[in-house]
Amino acid sequence: MDWQAFTLTLRLATVTTAILLAVAVPLAALLVLGRGRWLAALEALATLPLVLPPTVLGFFLLVLLGPRTAFGRGIAAVLGHPLAFSFDGLVVGSVIYSLPFAVQPLVAGFAAVPSSLVDAARLLGASPARVVGTLLVPLARRSLITAAVLSFLHTVGEFGVVLMLGGDIPGSTRTLSILLYNQVENFDYAAAERTAAILLAMCAVALAAVYSTSRQRGGGRG
Amino acid sequence: MVELKLDARRGGFHLMVECIFTSEWTVIFGPSGSGKSTLLRLLAGLDEPSHGRMTLDGLVLTDTESRVRVTPGKRQCGMVAQHTALFPHLSAAANVAYGLAAMDRTARERRVDEMLELAGATDLAALRPAELSGGQAQRVALARALAPRPRLLLLDEPFSALDGAASDGLLDRLQAWVRANHVQTVMATHDASDALAIEAEVLLLRDGRQAAMGPANEVLAGERKRLVGRLGGDTQ
Lengths: 222, 236
Description:
The structure holds 2 protein chains of 2 kinds. Chain A has helices at residues 3-33, 38-51, 54-65, 70-79, 87-111, 115-123, 128-139, 141-156, 160-166, 176-185, 189-218. By secondary structure, chain A is mainly alpha-helical. By secondary structure, chain B is an alpha/beta fold. In chain B, β5 (59-63) and β6 form a beta hairpin. Chains A and B meet through α6 and α7 of A and β7 of B.
C-alpha cells in the first residue's frame, strides 16, 4: 500500500472540492438567477470540461501554465515555482476538469427552488448573496452534497489531466490513479489489484453514504 | 400617491394602464386573467414594462425612457402574493424576521411579535409553513410583508383562504395599521365583497385594459349593470 499516493489523492480531492464549491455555488446562482445572453456562453464554458478529452485539457493547461507563456511565467514568479508538475498545478487542473460536476447539480438544485421564493426575498431587501446563502443553498442542500461528492470522486479517479499536467512525481503529483497505471505497466498485478480495490471502495462508500443520507431525508423515491 | 403609465407584454398578454392612485387604498378588481397580478408585479418591480413610467409620492420607480429602474428591494414595497411564498425551511417567526436583518435583535423580536399579533398569528410563530393551513399561511405572509413597514403594500387576493368572519377582523386591523403608518396599499381581488368592504378607489381591469376607475360603489355598480345586461342579451 502506497500511503503517500493515498494521502496525496485525498488531499487533492479535498482541496479541489473545497475550491469547487466556493466557485460553483456563486457561478450556479448566477446561471440560474442572472439575465443576459452571455450567460449561455458562460454555461457552455463551464460545461466544456465534461466533453473535452482530459488529455486535451491537460495539454492546454500544461502549455498555459508552463514557462512558454507570459501567464505561466507570471504565476511562477509569484509562487516561486512553476505550476506545471506541482501539487498546486494539479489543484488548478482538477478544479477546471471537475467544474461541471459541481456546477451542473447545483444549477439543477437552484433552478428547482420556486421563483416566487426568490421574488419574496428580493422584495424583503435581500441582496443576491443573501438570496443564495439563506434560500438557494439551504433549499438545495441535496444538490450541494451531490456536487461535493461528485467533485471529490471525480478528482479521486482523475488520470488524463494529472498525467499531462503533473507527470508522476512521488509525494507531489503521483495520485492513486497514476500509481495504478505504473503498477500495471510494470506487470505488478497484485499491487494494481490492491490500488484498484481502494479506489473502488472509496467511490462505493462515498456514493452509498450519499444515497443513504438522501433516502433517509427524503423517505425514499416513492 | 402612485402615478402609472405602463405598457407590458407577457407572451400573448398585453397590459395597458394609465392612472393615478390617490386614495390610501386602491383595489384592482377584475376577473381572472384580467392583468391584476401582472400589474402588481410591475408595481413591485419584479417585472419590467415594455414602456412606461411609475412614481410613488413623486419618486420615480420605473421610467423606461430614462432607463430608471429601482430594484424590488429598494422600493420599500411589501407584497403578499396569492401563493404566500413563505420560506419552507424557516419558522413563521423567522419568515417575518427575514426583512428585518438591519434591526438589532431586541427590536426585531419586538417587531415580529407585533406583526404576528396584528395578523392573528401569534400562536403560529414556531411552526414551519408546511404545518400551516392556507389561511394561517396568508396571515404569516401578511405579517412578513408588513414587518419592514413598507411605503407601498401590494396584496394579491390576500384573504382568499380565510373565511369571511376571520378576514373581516383582520381587514379592520390591517386598515387601521395602514392608516396609522401612511402606507399606500394596492389590493388585487376578483371578489366584489373585498372591494366593497374597504373605502377604496377601484381600478377595474378587463382583458389587460383599464375599464373604469373611481369609488368602489360606483365602479362595481357599473360593472354589475354591464354583466346583467350582457346576461340578458345572451339569453335572448
